[in-house]
Prior knowledge:
This protein is an all-alpha fold. It is built from eight helices and no strands. The chain folds into two domains: 1-40, Up-down Bundle (Single alpha-helices involved in coiled-coils or other helix-helix interfaces); 46-134, Annexin V, domain 1. Helix 1 packs across helix 3 (30-39) and helix 6 runs antiparallel to helix 7. The longest helix is centred in the C-terminal third of the chain and has 20 residues, at 105-124. It starts with a helix and ends in a 17-residue tail after the last helix. The model has no long low-confidence stretch (mean pLDDT 87).
Amino acid sequence: MNIEKVAKILNLIDKKTASRIIDYIKQRDSPLSKEILKQLFRFEDLQKLPDRDLSILLQEIPKPLLTIALKGEDKKFVAKIVKNLSKRAGDVLTEELTMMPPRPKREVVEAQRAITAVARMLVEQEKIFAPWMYKENEIIY
């Protein structure tokens, strides 16, 4: 089984379905499920990126898309994003988030998927580093 392909497919489907699939695999083959989980890249994983890599990613993301994707997210997560933007961009994002009316969940999820797709592309191009996507013996610090 190609773990990377499975992870890419799971990244494209909704969280609930992906979780059910992972749970099913975990019941049958726990080590396999752990390897698949390492290859997943979810929107909330952006919090795990080193600041330098998060800054690189944020330069590639249109600010309106980022604003929609952050709607309803944890304040700590939003603070990490704002910290990795310029002062002015961070202030604008914070203000837009407070002024933004409620959004359909589908719109927020689509924005988050678009951002994670860019993040995965940057990881594949080795422009940013997502340590959880590598086996321990593949990393040299």
